[in-house]
Amino acid sequence: MEQRIVLDLLELVNQSFKGKKLYLGKTDEYFSIVKMLGEDGQECHTYDDQLVDMKHSICQYVYMGEQKPLIINNTREHPATKKLAITSMEDIGSYMGVPLFYKDGKMFGTICVLAQESDAFSADDIKIVEKFSRLFSYVLELDKLANMDDLTNQYNRRYIYENYAKIEGKTAMLLLDLDNFKAVNDTHGHDVGDLVLREAASRIHAQIGSGDFVARLGGDEFVIVTRADGELALEQMAKKIIQVLSEWNSYPFSIKVSVSIGIALVTDENATDVRQALKEADQAMYNVKKNGKNMFHFSEGSYFE
């Protein structure tokens, strides 16, 4: 989501809740603070993109519960929150969380307001935050249209090109090209081809880490920007992706698809230049295609079966 718009909306919410902490959190198996304002209404950069195991966050009771607005007006005594480390660590006396949804009904995250004192929030406060939640939802949809691939629901080429340089801690770029995909379209038609692309994207996404990004560049090409630590971890990721994209025996259609992967390690030269990183990964992937497909190859070094 566009960070400036997020901050503007949080600042508007802040006008109704002076002296409170506010944040927008993205929720899945982990909880990530997208943006946070402190009690003085100023942006808290140190919290941006902070990852927390969902079971350690108060937002778990919104996300894993009924996904409805929640007020806990005495977090220090409430059985669900009194033992959470974050309650004492952030000196939280009251919590208010309102879920934020995509247009299709899938939950994106929560808008949360925190207060040091108990009994800080009311049902009227919930209504105010719900109104802002609907505004955030519109922003989410615009962001999704601009940055997500409609077919696979992964990031698109535009997102990677615009955000690659900003991704901190990245270690490598993996360029994936499905082998023999043209035969799927030729034999079964483009509708089945689209189903296979969706399935492939889902399998790829299941193999990445929580801080990694997958994008469909177009056609049957995908790219992963990863924070995997070390060459061994990259090898393991590549091998697992090759494995899951080679197993189609139980698929409803008879297809023989595999994947060729080129890996470009992040260096000083390509860390901010997405075109250079793609060029290096593409050359490595070309070497895989030339040597029999269904393998991976580093942009520098040997390839592995």
Quick tags:
24% strand, 7-stranded mixed beta sheet, 9 helices, single chain, 36% helix, elongated, alpha+beta, 6-stranded antiparallel beta sheet, disordered C terminus, 305 residues
Write the layout of secondary structure elements.
Elements: H1 3-16, E1 21-27, E2 30-37, E3 50-53, H2 60-63, E4 70-72, H3 85-89, E5 94-101, E6 107-115, H4 123-147, E7 155-156, H5 157-163, E8 172-179, H6 181-188, H7 190-205, E9 213-218, E10 221-226, H8 231-244, E11 258-265, H9 274-290, E12 296-298, E13 303-304
Helix pairs in contact: 1-4, 6-7
Strand order in space, largest sheet: 7-9-10-8-11-12-13
Q: Give the distance, in angstroms, between the N- and C-terminal Cα atoms.
A: 39 Å
Mean pLDDT: 89
Q: How is the main sheet built?
A: 7 strands, mixed
The best one-word shape is: elongated
How many helical elements?
9
| N-to-C SSE string, H for helix and E for strand | HEEEHEHEEHEHEHHEEHEHEE
Question: How many distinct beta strands?
Answer: 13
Organism: Gracilibacillus pellucidus
Enzyme class: transferase
Protein name: Sensor domain-containing diguanylate cyclase
Keywords: Nucleotidyltransferase, Transferase
